[in-house]
């Protein structure tokens, strides 16, 4: 009897857990963003930016916002690590794609990485949030300017949003 209730309970609550993948090329600010989210939305103290090193494995962050459990998967963005991303696509419900808006010389790299993500069949239909990060820096471009630059043809068919943020300021 107990196991029946436990099974039901697990079924009901596992439904309210959402997996969010945080992707983007190296140094975009993915881990800094995750640590900031942890500090703001949970009572765990996130790592301060000076203690964050380039990601090689996987960082997991769990937060709860108005009753919904969000599980964030933050992966490494170095070129040799990007092939690992697709292993997580099947179980992901949404994607946050982070771009360093203060580094135009790497926009092209971000654009092709993002286009590859959008083409993958396991992510068709997944909502997408594109973040123009590092808005605290004077040289950063706005989210509109970044959207114009990326000129993503495939975006029209999906739920997506551009947002300007700073992982430092929150
Ligand atoms: N000024 C500024 N710097 C930032 C911001 N977010 C991240 N950084 C800096 O950018 C660098 C890279 O940040 P990470 O969070 O390690 O980047 P990442 O995307 O996780 O990189 P990988 O793990 O290698 O894929 C670090 O020096 C951060 O302190 C931001 O909003 N503003
Ligand atoms: Mg990282």
UniProtKB/TrEMBL annotation:
GO cellular component term of the entry, any: Golgi apparatus
Binding of GTP, residues: 24-31, 77, 133-136
A Pfam family that the UniProt record links to this protein: Arf
Gene Ontology terms: biological process: Golgi to plasma membrane protein transport; intracellular protein transport; protein localization to Golgi apparatus
Entry keywords, A to Z: ER-Golgi transport, GTP-binding, Lipoprotein, Magnesium, Metal-binding, Myristate, Nucleotide-binding, Protein transport, Transport
Alphabetized InterPro entries for the sequence: P-loop_NTPase, Small_GTP-bd, Small_GTPase_ARF, Small_GTPase_ARF/SAR
Gene3D superfamilies cross-referenced by the UniProt entry: P-loop containing nucleotide triphosphate hydrolases
GO molecular function, one term: metal ion binding
Residues noted as binding Mg(2+) in the record, renumbered to the chain: 31, 55
SMART domains assigned to the protein according to its UniProt record, in alphabetical order: ARF, RAB, SAR
Family of this protein: Belongs to the small GTPase superfamily. Arf family.
Protein name: Uncharacterized protein
Source organism per UniProt: Cannabis sativa (Hemp)
Name of encoding gene: LOC115715954
């Amino acid at each position: 009897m107990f196991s029946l209730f436990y099974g039901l309970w697990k079924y009901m609550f596992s439904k309210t857990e959402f997996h969010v993948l945080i992707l983007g090329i190296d140094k975009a600010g993915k881990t800094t963003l995750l640590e900031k989210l942890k500090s703001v939305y949970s009572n765990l103290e996130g790592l301060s930016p000076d203690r964050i090193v380039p990601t090689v494995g996987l960082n997991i962050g769990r937060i709860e916002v108005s009753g919904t459990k969000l599980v964030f998967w933050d992966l490494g963005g170095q070129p040799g690590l990007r092939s690992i991303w697709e292993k997580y696509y099947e179980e992901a419900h949404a994607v946050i794609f982070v771009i360093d808006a203060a580094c135009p010389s790497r926009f092209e790299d971000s654009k092709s990485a993002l286009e590859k993500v959008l083409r993958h069949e396991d992510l068709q239909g997944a909502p997408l949030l594109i973040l123009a990060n590092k808005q605290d820096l004077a040289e950063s471009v706005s989210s509109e300017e970044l959207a114009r630059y990326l000129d993503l043809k495939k975006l029209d068919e999906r739920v997506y949003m551009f947002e300007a943020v700073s992982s430092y300021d929150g």
